[in-house]
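Work package 3, deliverable 3.1, input record:
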Amino acid sequence: MSFDPAILAAFVDGELDDLTARRIEREAEGDPALAAEIARHRALKAKLAAHYAPIAEEPVPERLRALLVPAAETVDTSITARRAAKQARFTPIHWGAIAASLVLGLTLGLRPWAPAASIAEADGAVIAAGPLAEALDTQLASNQPSDAAVRIRLSFQDRDGRFCRSFESASLDGIGCRDNGRWNLERAIRGQAGTDYRQASSSELAAAAAAMMGSDPLDAATERQARDKGWARR
Amino acid sequence: MRFEEELVELLPRLRRFARGLARDASDADDLCQAAIERALKSQGQWQQGTRLDSWMYRITRNLWIDERRATGRRGVHTPIDDAVMQVAGDGAAEVEAGTLRGDVDGAMAHLPDEQREVVMLVLVEGYAYREAADILDVPIGTVTSRLARGRDTLMHLLGEAA
């Protein structure tokens, strides 16, 4: 093998100029030992990447986010609050992790309102299913039983005119937006019902909703109207 | 984008880097928290238009080094096998090849700090040698030699046989 180990490492790390890199590639085709050495380096890199990748997929702990994202105290949907919220960025949902748990046939691993799964996957998006979808379809924020398993907090239209609804339940809080007859889960956080985190999670959700709003939240009458028309975009 | 927003976006990656350095999950988040606090305090030192991620990684890494030195002096928190390995230099030689097959955490724990941080930056976080050298404030040749030694040890312990 005519290549220095340092050159090989640099090759695998993408640090070589194109010319040298191509020369090594050509050489490796006719040199099994060289090819094996490259494969060994790549395998190590892949193993490390795979080992650490899930950490970046974990939801960022609230104590860290809270240092950077001011939490709204109450459900404040005033214009000022919406403007302020738009400037803040919310952690995207970690679809990778959620999708992976779906693929594995696991529930979210949270407290159950199982058996019927409340989330499903369609065309690469995570959507509401079962009792959650039903609540989003039918339940009115203005008129819901106090012991409802899923509580609708706010209904509003986002800047694309889609109807969106924020909800809370024992195992999952989030925001679903109506698209192609489905409720896409645009935000999802682990439900915190009955814990000290309830407040934090509630205000986080409210702030996220405020940031998405295209106009004021729906009042009772418009909400009912929208529901009766099947949440079709106006 | 606002400074805080950019930092929030960085957090998932920064937590990964911190986990690689500190190894323990809650120590790693403590490290992130300290880094965020430091960053907010020294915000004025960050030059708009330069890379916030490199700056943040540098802060995190320096805080971790300070912490390691402090605990090292007190002689606590350093597991015995770590200490032995570091005294023994590249250490892994006395461990049979492939002993830690599949145990990435275990293998990483065998690396001296200065190799582990380079491995994290280049092999996990995907930084170029030049960028890693800037973050660590060492010459690029130091990055490549530490990386080579770290790699050899990991391959040996994880049994990445050719």
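The CA atoms of residues 171 and 191 of chain A lie 4 Å apart.
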